[in-house]
Design brief:
The chain is of the alpha+beta class. It contains 17 helices and 20 strands. Strands 6, 10, 11, 14, 15, 16, 17, 18, 19 and 20 form a 10-stranded mixed beta sheet that branches.
Length: 498
């Protein structure tokens, strides 16, 4: 018996005892020649919601429904029950003179959580509840563990994540989050496909992890006798495709980063990356705000939503602020006056921040922004003009070569995406990779490795290109009013139980 099972409080008696009773019922069924796991299929005519929605046409009609028993009320020779399918719940009315004494006794021995299939007629009770008067039923699956007691439910948050299958049964509203997630992903595909983008797939196993500053997961391929990495981003492969002539591509898939777990981070997460030839970062900003507004309208019915009690207006255009202007606005300090990392660090220390020794200008600016600005950006805001030191794949700005044509949109204090005019100068790209290698040798495990093949691809010619990456999990959090990323992942990574 696992600790998880022991922690599910039924409010009546210990789980071990209830499981023993259910096992005894299973033995009794099998002794009577009934195998509750033998049925291979049950042909349903309707789901619960369809019966509720179409009662006027279905009244007095025979239907076949199936689902999990969520409540039972016995009244002598007649009983009521509710079964739950993915669409909702429907009440059953079971009478001994309708189903027969033997079948009725079998019904009385059923437990909450058992799955049954039912044939019967649709009617409305004297109390007005739409129901199915049962003519016959069959047990499709016997549940050997009790469901959480209905008054308390499954409330332990960690247990809900570990036992998502029980969470989905006990808390039907959780299902809706994942229905919405599916709609978000479908809306993204609809938007991009309608605009001529081609969905592609690139490798999950990489010889060189690239496309982002992140610590990778390491694995090993026995046949090739080679160390491999789970990808941290598909960016460099997607841009290889643009070199090859695919001018509008996207990938919607998983990335893996060997980082901590929090309400905003999970080591395995879903991301969208989009690349379009012959456009710049400005065009990708417009695509970002338009795409997110489109998805919000599709799944919520409006571009104005409420997140954690805050009204958020996603209607384009969104506010735009350079990184330095944002820092100045929220701290009062003008970092544009700093000539290098050392001067920037002195300014940061006056704000009470501890800056790592030897940090360059871009690293200091990023630290100040993360600590003192990010959480204040509630309404959709694009932060632009990132220092080149922290943007190894972005194109320099022609009039400000120390800065890049990079942007990140923030909503409710969270980074939602990252994009830029892509660096297509192979000589500059090689130098930036070398600088990343130097940082890596100095102990930065998140710095890029040298990718000679990607530089080779750039030497064949990457047209002017705009790129964009959106964190899908955070977008779903926003559109479902979910505080934690684990609320929008069906099976978030959890620390093993001791």
């Amino acid at each position: 018996m696992s600790d998880d099972a022991q922690r599910v409080d039924t409010g009546m008696q210990d789980v071990n005892e209830q499981m023993l009773i259910r096992r005894q019922k299973l033995d009794k069924l099998r002794a009577a020649g009934i195998d509750p796991y033998a049925v291979e299929r049950f042909d349903r005519s309707h789901e619960a919601a369809q019966i509720h929605e179409n009662f006027s046409e279905l009244e007095d009609q025979e239907v076949a429904v199936a689902g999990r028993i969520m409540s039972i009320r016995t009244h002598g020779k007649a009983s009521f029950a509710h079964i739950q399918d993915m669409s909702g719940r429907i009440q059953l009315y079971v009478r001994i003179d309708q189903v027969g004494e033997e079948a009725y006794q079998l019904f009385l021995d059923l437990d909450l959580g058992d799955i049954i299939g039912v044939h019967g007629k649709v009617f409305r009770t004297r109390r007005g509840e739409i129901s199915v008067a049962v003519d016959s039923f069959e047990l499709l699956c016997k549940a050997l563990r009790p469901l959480p007691e209905k008054w308390h439910g499954l409330k332990d948050v960690e247990l809900r994540y570990r036992m998502r299958y029980v969470d989905l049964i006990a808390n039907p509203e959780v299902q809706q989050v994942f229905v919405t997630r599916s709609k978000v992903i479908q809306a993204i595909r609809d938007y991009l496909n309608a605009r001529g983008f081609l969905e592609v797939e690139t490798p999950m196993l990489n010889l060189i992890p690239g496309g982002a500053n992140a610590r990778p997961f390491v694995t090993y391929h026995n046949a090739l006798d080679t160390q491999l990495y789970l990808r941290i981003a598909p960016e460099l492969y997607l841009k290889r495709l643009v070199v090859g002539g695919f001018e509008k591509v996207y990938e919607l898939n998983r990335n893996f980063r060997n980082e901590g777990i929090s309400t905003k981070h999970n080591p395995e997460y879903t991301a969208l990356e989009v690349y379009q030839a012959y456009v710049d970062g400005e065009e990708m900003m417009r695509l970002t705000e338009d795409l997110i507004a489109y998805v919000a309208e599709k799944v919520t019915g409006s571009t104005v939503i409420t997140y954690q009690g805050e009204r958020i207006d996603l209607t384009p255009p969104w506010r735009r602020l350079t990184m330095l202007d944002a820092i100045k606005e929220y701290t009062g300090v003008d970092f544009s006056q700093a000539k290098d990392g050392e001067e920037a660090a002195r300014l940061a220390k006056k704000l009470g921040l501890e800056i790592e020794e030897g940090a360059n200008f871009g690293q200091v600016i990023a630290e100040v922004f993360d600590e003192m600005v990010e959480d204040k950006l509630i309404q959709p805001t694009f932060i632009t003009e990132y220092p080149v030191e922290i943007s190894p794949l972005a194109k320099r700005m022609a009039d400000k070569p120390d800065y890049t044509a990079r942007f990140e949109p923030y909503i409710y204090g969270r980074e939602m995406a990252n994009g830029f005019s892509e660096l297509n100068d192979p000589i500059d790209q090689r130098e930036r990779f070398l600088e990343q290698v130097r940082q890596r040798e100095a102990g930065d495990e998140e710095a890029h490795m040298m990718d000679e093949d990607y530089v080779r691809a750039l030497e064949y010619g990457l047209p002017p290109t705009g790129g964009l990456g959106i964190g899908i999990d955070r977008l779903v959090m926003l559109l479902t009013d979910s505080y934690s990323i684990r609320d929008v992942l069906l099976f978030p990574l959890m620390k093993p139980r001791e």
